[in-house]
Write a structure and sequence with these properties.
Elements (H helix, E strand, L loop, with lengths): L1 E9 L12 E6 L2 H13 L5 H8 L3 E9 L3 H17 L4 E4 L4 E3 L1 H4 L7 H8 L1 E4 L3 E5 L9 E4 L5 H17 L9 E2 L8 E5 L17 E5 L2
Parallel strand pairs: 8-11
Antiparallel strand pairs: 1-3, 1-4, 2-3, 4-5, 6-7, 7-8, 9-10, 10-11
Helix pairs in contact: 3-5
């Protein structure tokens, strides 16, 4: 099952008139959400002072969620269209909860909801925790995350491998094989591919329930 969760902030005192197949509900402003949004957007160098000011003065939040068992790309497209329509109605920011990504209006205005690469950019993030480079957000396509351990010497190649494999899975419908191998390009290092363990997340709605693909440098 795939899942998309969006939180959209705007200058609204009541729910904006947005037609959508997503489940939606509206609530008032949330200062903690605003500061979290600004922090994530600054981490990606994707917000300016005017954007931050608009986020801090938002008046309402539209929550949009959908669970699906098929047609992942169609639902992903619908999510981007919902975000774009909200921007047209004055939204000041869109937070992709399942990927911890923050988008301001100017970051979204040129996004093409029919383009698979745009969908990947919208829903998927690649982050490091000091030991692993991992995707976050493949849940939006009903796909497993991709992760790879790294050292100081292998950070760049691990990041390239994780990003490349995840993008191919989303944009080219590529299916990895447990026990197979993968390389990001002809000159890139070879990685062994294996299936990891399912996370015991206690029912966290933001956590991808699928066992991740693990990339390990071949000997």
């Amino acid at each position: 099952m795939g899942r998309i969760i969006l939180t959209i902030a705007g200058p609204w005192s009541k729910a904006p008139d947005l037609k959508s197949d997503f489940d939606t509900y509206f609530e008032g402003s949330d200062d903690e959400f605003a500061e979290d949004f600004i922090f994530v957007a600054r981490r990606a160098d994707a917000i300016n002072a005017d954007d931050a000011r608009a986020m801090r003065t938002h008046e309402g939040l539209l929550k949009a969620t959908i669970d699906f068992d098929q047609d992942a790309h169609r639902w992903a497209e619908k999510g981007v269209r919902l975000a774009l329509n909200a921007i047209e109605l004055g939204a000041v920011g869109v937070f992709v909860e399942t990927a911890c990504k923050a988008f301001t209006p100017h970051a979204l205005k040129s996004m093409n909801p029919k383009d698979a690469h745009s969908l990947f950019h919208f829903y998927v993030e690649v982050l490091g925790d000091g030991q692993h480079i991992s995707t976050e957000g493949m849940y939006a396509f009903d796909l497993p995350e991709v992760t790879a351990p790294y050292s100081a010497h292998t950070l760049a190649t691990a990041q390239a491998a994780v990003f490349s494999l995840a993008a191919r899975m989303v944009c080219n419908r590529f299916s990895p094989v447990d026990g197979g191998v993968y390389r990001a390009s002809e000159s890139a290092p070879l990685y062994d591919v294996s299936r990891g363990q399912v996370s015991d997340d206690g029912g966290d709605p933001y956590q991808n329930p699928l066992a991740p693909w693990v990339l390990t440098l071949s000997d």
